[in-house]
Design a protein that fits this description.
Structural class: alpha/beta
Strand order of the largest sheet: 2-1-6-5-7
CATH superfamily of the largest domain: SPOUT methyltransferase, trefoil knot domain
Shape: elongated
Bound molecules: S-adenosylmethionine
Number of helices: 8
CATH architecture of the largest domain: 3-Layer(aba) Sandwich
Order of helices and strands: EHHEEEHEHEEHHEEHH
Radius of gyration: 23 Å
Amino acid sequence: MLIETLSVFPEVFEPYMSASIMGRARSMGALDFCAYDLRDWTHDRHRTVDDAPFGGGQGMLMKCEPIYEAVEDIRTKHETSPHIIFVTPCGASFDQACAQRLACHERLLFVCGRYEGMDERALDLADERISLGDYVLTGGELAALVIADAVVRLIPGVLGDEKSAVDESFSDGLLEYAQYTRPADYHGKQVPDVLLSGNHAAVDAWRRKSSLERTARFRPDLLEQAELSEQERVWVKQFMDQRAHNEGE
Ligand code: SAM
């Protein structure tokens, strides 16, 4: 996969994109990364990318000309056209399903805003608009990094253990099961016996139930869409009753 970014702070990407799993993905050839500086597509001495909004108002807006020129230019740098993502509070909320969908693309180009945002006409270039959530960041670079991180770890081979991305929270619409490591007893807080039993079927069954319990406890909204067996529905009802009981105490 090739991930590209277009922003006025291209230097913020490299430290993250060369560390840990992102760095490993690049060194193993699963990921190529390139950060473009929007100012390279300006034509004035000051390399201006912003201007005051028509109609007045606070702050500055990113101009549409350099964005159009840059996107057109970047688009033709490789044979495969990029899937163009504008990170913006007016996009659809990012989630794991979106990460899975994006992981199927060969080439992603993130366009990142700054200042008070950008001229609305620039957004016409987007194949999709994605928001990290209902809050306002200073710039789109962090949003692009968050999305890139969630996508790159889904590329086959990047995590090493293929199962690790499959077992995780949201991969089946539920939160991940509770996990423990040594010591088995920490000041009386004990790891469930079944996890020490070596019985893989029993461990799998315990994990499914734990996953349902944690979802009912921390993110009950997720259960509306989850595919559950009859038995699992009974457990979920018990967990929800328990939750209501605890909240009433
Ligand atoms: N004035 C804009 C508004 O009220 O929607 C906010 C502009 S924000 C200060 C500057 C840039 O940060 C945006 O153009 C966008 O690229 C990025 N950004 C801010 N919040 C974001 C979010 N929740 N998700 C994705 N990108 C965001």
